[in-house]
Amino acid sequence: MIPLGQAQKRVLEACRPGAAVEVATSEALGLVLAAALRAPEPVPPFRNTAMDGYAVHAADVAGASPQKPVRLKVVGTRAAGSAGAVDVGRGEALRIMTGALFPDGADAVAIVEETRADGDHVEILAPASPGVHIRPAGDDIAQGQSLFEAGTVLGPGHLGVLSSAGVSAVKAFRAPVVGVLSTGDELVEAGAELRAGQIRDTNRLTLLSLARRDGFGVVDLGIARDDEAAIGAALMRGVEACDAILTSGGVSMGDFDYVKTVLDRIGKMSWMQVAIRPAKPFAFGTIGAVPVFGLPGNPVSSMVSYELLARPGLRKIAGHLDSDLLRPAVRGFVAGEGWRGAKDGRTTYVRVTAEFAADGRLRASSSGGQGSHQLYAMAQANALAVTPPGHELVDGDPVDVLVLS
What we know:
With 405 residues, this protein is α+β, with helices and mostly antiparallel strands.
């Protein structure tokens, strides 16, 4: 067996970021920036008001109060989006709405709550300080300011910033397209009638969904029977259409593991026994330049292999920084019935539900059966508790947790 870190190192050394392409900002959610960005224009682009009210001269209203209001002549109204040549002189006020271009001449905003309209005049009931409630041009972002560095994962807020600064397209790494193939004579589609010895194919949908969740494109390569020609044809379809391939099943040492035979013939593969439970058998290599991840057939093993080994490699292809490829471990504590680590030197990844306790600490409780075939407990889990070999963890013990969702 080899340590998990060694297997991860093999994967990450072989995976390379994909092509950087120009993408419309509106289509860039979840992509990784390939080049730093600077603001081509200031935000806001002009001086504007932060409140509804009246643009005034602060000196005119310095002594205003409800008992002694200051009466000013209203010279017009300006809404957001409108402009004009109105200047505000001494003894005058311009009615102004939030976001509107602030007029020349005025230097303060009398907020509407502290005014009283009276025909073509307004009474100001409180002083207004110079500059208060006025947003200068570039108050949020200055022209030429550095916005986001290469390696930034673009979220909704980033896209809003880019839009506000007039950035309509960005250079980003294209999300990889992942092909998913299940193998085995025993597998049937979800809606098919089960015959003796058959099971429904769960891994393909699960892996397709995991890849979609992580922002990757997907191609369903279907189920390949235990036949070398069928497996080879399916893999070559994936090579032509995809940036990476996930296979499920046929990576252990069984007599009918045809996937190994085919991949050894058409690819350059490493067949590993990783010191983890579940998901000990794992294959990785390339067909041409396309990485291939051979995951175990047991449903939980397949998901855990994806999280610990395939996902980091796919994230590297997507352009994520090296520091952001693996899920970070969060320190928590065991809650309720504990569990025991493997006795054969493997690190156990216990399926747990993790939530924050009243004291702010992360508590982890077993989500149910821990067999590699018990997918229901994995579906109930939102984290994996990292349990060293031979360790018995009981209620209250500290434990490192990989939060999945």
